[in-house]
Description:
- By secondary structure, the protein is an alpha/beta fold.
- It folds into 2 domains: 3-94 and 218-269, Rossmann fold, CATH 3.40.50; 97-217, Rossmann fold (3-Layer(aba) Sandwich).
- It is 45% helix and 17% strand.
- A 6-stranded parallel beta sheet has the order 4-3-1-2-11-12, with helices on both faces. Strands 8-6-9-10 form a 4-stranded parallel beta sheet, with helices on both faces.
- α10 links the parallel β9 (189-192) and β10.
- α1 crosses α11.
- The longest helix is centred in the middle third of the chain and has 18 residues, at 166-183.
- The protein is globular, with a radius of gyration of 18 Å.
- The chain starts with a strand and ends with a strand.
- The model has no long low-confidence stretch (mean pLDDT 92).
Amino acid sequence: MAVGVFDSGLGGLTVLAAARRRLPATSFVYLGDNAHAPFGVRDPDDIYQLTRRGVQALWDQGCDLVILACNTASAVALRRLQEAGLPSGKRVLGVFVPLIETLTGRGWGDTSPPTMAAGLQVALFATPATVSSRAFPRELAYRALGIDVESQACVGLVDAIEAGDHAEAEALVVAHVAQLQTKMPSPDAAVLGCTHYPLVENAFREALGPSVRVISQPEVVAASLADYLERHPAFNDTDAAQRFLTTGDVSSVSVQAQTFLGEPIRFEPCVT
């Protein structure tokens, strides 16, 4: 069966691209909820309902395993989805856990008490909804103590990236990094907590400087998915099929998506 990949728009294509490189034989179905993007400025109940509908649509496509390739959905909706109870044989995974595994060096299966990491300063760049959820520092605290996290809500950045306005996106990165540095002048690491942000990763690196370790999600999530599928082969197949679905305008979304994957993509309409 194919692995489902859900995002509020097109940012999840950065994760899909890395997953395809890592798992070339695996089939994927991508669903972008472009009709309702961006999620990052919506209220939590709205985000939950949109995510639930998107996940259900991918289950209906035969994707028993769905990756929420959207940090906002992962931060706001994932725990609520899991607590509500998933149907038998269905799994939904988020993109925060692989980031935290990388940052702390501890696998999620490690149930030992949190380790001390006193003095480590981490900057989180994310959408307003992800920042206000406080999901990242909460989940991080399960693995390590003493890490100082300063979060920066990057208002407008997703919109600029989706619109293909590179100049505006890079200007926003510079502004948001400068604002973060008024609160945390010298972070040790920076987490790009949105799957759109890899498209402006170089701008983040330049603004932050060479001394800051920048952690971006696509390769991290792809490696985590490969490990999960190795341990749970029933969720995988080797047909290497690819499908792309959107709740938005098929033509415009297909054109925009080339920026993210670097190749022509044909989207199909989907109602959630």
